[in-house]
């Protein structure tokens, strides 16, 4: 039998705790957890998946650029000489 490999920081005990947590939830608790999440699940036609992924990537890039610019402009930050 092949030994299981876990991502860094995970082990058999942690996996079992997560499994136990989700298996012990009531239907109402599952719904509440889903509603509290900050994501939305949608059905997207397969032909549009690559376009949607590109839109998400563009939005993330714009956020990173905006945060980087705001960080450089923050008081107390000195411009670096190149």
Layout of strands and helices, then pairs:
Blueprint: H1 12-23, H2 27-36, H3 49-73
Number of structural domains: 1
Count, helices? 3
For the termini, the CA-CA separation is 56 Å
Oligomer: single chain
From the spread of the alpha carbons, the general shape counts as extended
Rg computed from alpha carbons, rounded to a whole number of angstroms = 21 Å
Unreliable segments of 5+ consecutive residues: none
Number of strands: 0
Q: Please, what is the average pLDDT?
A: 87
Question: Could you characterize the architecture of this molecule?
Answer:
The protein has helices at residues 12-23, 27-36, 49-73. It is built from three helices and no strands. It has one domain (12-73). The mean pLDDT is 87.
Quick description:
With 82 residues, the chain is mainly α. 57% of the residues lie in helices and 0% in strands. The model has no long low-confidence stretch (mean pLDDT 87).
Q: Keywords for this structure?
A:
82 residues; mainly alpha; extended; 57% helix
């Amino acid at each position: 039998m092949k030994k299981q490999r876990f991502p860094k920081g995970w082990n058999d005990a942690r996996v079992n705790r997560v499994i136990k947590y989700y298996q012990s939830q009531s239907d109402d608790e599952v719904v509440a957890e889903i509603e509290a999440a900050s994501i939305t699940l949608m059905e997207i036609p397969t032909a549009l998946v690559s376009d949607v992924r590109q839109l998400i990537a563009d939005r993330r890039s714009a956020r990173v650029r905006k945060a980087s610019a705001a960080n450089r402009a923050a008081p107390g930050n000195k411009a670096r000489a190149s």
